[in-house]
């Protein structure tokens, strides 16, 4: 499985803006605590991610990287 969204969980402040921005509701706040003492956000279901990058655009700290699958064109 290739990850579509990667959070730098150690830098996340748990503001939950990405949770609210996700159109398919797959980002949740973790129950664990990161190195900064916050509950970071994380993706619960990578396979369901549509790579829309709404989470990455709204993150004030730039801790989210979104990968989009390569679209291959068919030869006609």
Amino- and carboxy-terminal Cα gap: 30 Å
The SSE string, one letter per element, is EHEEHE
Please summarize the sheet with the most strands. Answer: 2 strands, antiparallel
Mean pLDDT, rounded to whole units?
Answer: 92
Strand order of the largest sheet: 1-4
CATH hierarchy: architecture? 2-Layer Sandwich
Uncertain ranges: none
Strand content: 15-25%
Tell me what you see in this structure.
- By secondary structure, the chain is an alpha+beta fold.
- It contains 2 helices and 4 strands; from the N terminus they run βαββαβ.
- It has helices at residues 17-21, 54-58; strands at residues 5-7, 27-29, 41-43, 64-66.
- The longest helix has 5 residues, at 17-21.
- The mean pLDDT is 92.
Sum up the structure in keywords.
76 residues; alpha+beta; Alpha-Beta Plaits; two-stranded antiparallel ribbon; two-stranded antiparallel sheet; 2 helices; 4 strands; elongated
């Amino acid at each position: 499985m290739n990850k579509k969204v990667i959070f730098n969980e150690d830098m996340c402040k748990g503001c939950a803006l990405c949770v609210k921005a996700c159109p398919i509701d797959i980002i949740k706040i973790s129950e664990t605590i990161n190195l900064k003492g916050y509950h970071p956000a994380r993706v619960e279901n990578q396979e369901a991610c549509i790579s829309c990058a709404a989470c990455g655009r709204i993150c004030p700290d730039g801790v989210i990287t979104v990968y989009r699958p390569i679209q291959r064109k068919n030869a006609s």
